[in-house]
Amino acid sequence: EVQLVDSGGDLIQPGGSLRLSCAASGFTFSNYWMHWVRQAPGKGLVWVSRVNSDGSIRNYADSVKGRFTISRDNAKNTLFLQMNSLRAEDTAVYYCARESAVLGRYFDSWGQGTLVTISS
Amino acid sequence: DIQMTQSPSSLSASVGDRVTITCRASQTITNYLNWYQQKPGKAPNLLIFAASSLQSGVPSRFSGSGSGTDFTLTISSLQPEDFATYYCQQSYNTPRTFGQGTKVEIK
User: How distant is the Cα of A76 from the closest Cα of chain B, in angstroms?
Assistant: First the structure.
């Protein structure tokens, strides 16, 4: 069974840092592009970042570029999101998602989400 | 960035109703259009990929159509478990962008 487990969310003061993790199991992690998507309280889904299968290609939303870094450890089947210089507007549930590329490109598996709250 | 616009933002419907949600892209995305269902407190769940392909395990009352810039999600006969928020998403390019969501509520 494919499983993604998000962790690392916390209450952090503005300007602080946090690292999120997404532990993958049930599939060959190193074969997939992986993404982070966030959802502010009561709001819609917003794409944050993606990394290719070997970690050599990374893309970011403009709102987090220069502050967030996506990475992965294929030996440990884990995806990361290092979040620096956090702002109140970064408050959200963060989901990792696997992107399948069979007959299209789509997020066919999601983590359960981890809550990041930025507040003093 | 490609903008995705869903309509309506919300709707009220009864069990057994036929429900249609539309999604428009700001430029052509061919058929790189996906639909997700999200229930409160849960992660999104993939329903339809590549505009019209039904994800494994998703009931056949869900269907998708369209290409280019205009797309539709149809629920042929609304069931109690279908009350949720639905999002379209383009995967034509990066950044991947989502519609603002359509909340389907009980009439």
Answer: 23
Residue pointed to by tokens 């999104």 = B44
Tens-place pLDDT, residues B65-90:
999 999 999 999 999 999 999 999 99
**Chain B CB contacts of A100 below 8 Å:** 49
Omega of the bond prior to B40 within 30 degrees of 0, cis? no
Kind of pairing between the strands at B85-90 and B45-49: unpaired
Q: Find tokens 């930025």 and name the residue.
A: A118
> Of A47, A103, A107, which is closest to B50 when you measure between CB atoms?
A103
pLDDT truncated to tens, each residue of chain A (120 aa)? 999 999 999 999 999 999 999 999 999 999 999 999 999 999 999 999 999 999 999 999 999 999 999 999 999 999 999 999 999 999 999 999 999 998 999 999 999 999 999 999
Query: Mind giving me the DSSP string for A43-107?
Result: --EEEEEEE-TTS--EEE-TTTTTTEEEEEETTTTEEEEEE-S--GGG-EEEEEEEEE-SSS-EE
Give the tokens for residue B11.
């709707």
The answer for residues whose C-beta is within 8 angstroms of residue B17's C-beta and 6 or more apart is B77, B78, B107
Please tell me the distance in Å from B59's CA to the nearest CA on chain A: 16
Query: Radius of gyration (Cα) for chain B, nearest Å?
Result: 13
